[in-house]
Amino acid sequence: MSALLDQLAGNQLGGFILVLARVTPLFLLAPIFSSNLIPRAVKGVIAVGISIGLTPIAMHGQHIPSDPWAVAGLVAEGLLVGLSFSFALAVLMAAVESAGSFVDVVAGFSYGELINPLSGESAGVMSRFYALFGTMIFLVIGGDAWTLRGIGRTFQLVPLTEAPRIGSLVGGAEQVFATIFTSAIEIAAPVLAALLITDVAFGVVSRVVPQMNVFAVGFPTKVAVALLVVCASLPFVSNWISGQMSSSVAAALGALHVA
């Protein structure tokens, strides 16, 4: 009986380690989970708690090998699967922050950079605002629940003792990475178009009334136009994030195949 209990405990412990390896990348890349506002100790506790909850699901019908080298290989494969899934979600927030960076450059907000509390890096005002707004919408639509359900789904697509298809993971990562620029343009398009029209209008005014100091009038006007259009376009941004969230999870899961 003791030998059976030891074998069962070893199997469960190995499964927990493999699940933890797949969950850990969420706290490196995934929105909310990777925020610098969450202390590392708290991230560790949450990761362990999520792994404990997912272990019975992931261990269904699985037998973890006792060879340490085989377990190490499975841990590396679990990290790869977790990184692939988390990267697809990270691209979503990266596109939102990039849209804010475009607005900063065109509107002139990039002259005063602030520290983004979510990433700990310096960013423009609009980039920081879009990051905070995107995070708020992510929480409102239940993005954290989408993330946990998605990571749980990965154990069905690629079981603990199976290896993922590397080519599929790389192709999926390339596909989602290529959408960052176009997605950022989609989000910032109303503001960029309004600022372009404003620049053209001031160019015409400078030709008609050359004695007017366009630079003194143009900068505050561009700031006002940018803020007005940003506020008006926030419902569009929230709808875009809501729709893109399900697409990102679907794309992340669609790239997972057993080798």
What do you see in this structure?
With about 260 residues, this protein is an all-alpha fold. The chain has one domain. The protein is about 75% helix and about 0% strand. It has helices spanning about 1-25, 25-30, 40-60, 70-105, 125-140, 145-155, 165-175, 180-210, 215-255, and strands spanning about 115, 120-125. The protein has a two-stranded antiparallel ribbon. Strand 1 (about 115) and strand 2 (about 120-125) form a beta hairpin. Helix 1 packs across helix 3, helix 3 (about 40-60) crosses helix 6 and helix 4 packs parallel to helix 8. The longest helix has about 40 residues, at about 215-255. Mean pLDDT is about 80; it is low at about 1-10.
Shape: elongated
* Intertermini distance: 37 Å
Overall number of strands = 2
Proportion in β-strands: under 5%
Radius of gyration: 23 Å
Count, helices: 9
Unreliable stretches: 1-8
Mean pLDDT: 80
Order of helices and strands: HHHHEEHHHHH
Total domains: 1
Largest sheet composition: 2 strands, antiparallel
Q: How are the strands ordered across the major sheet?
A: 1-2
Structural class: mainly alpha
Helix content: over 70%
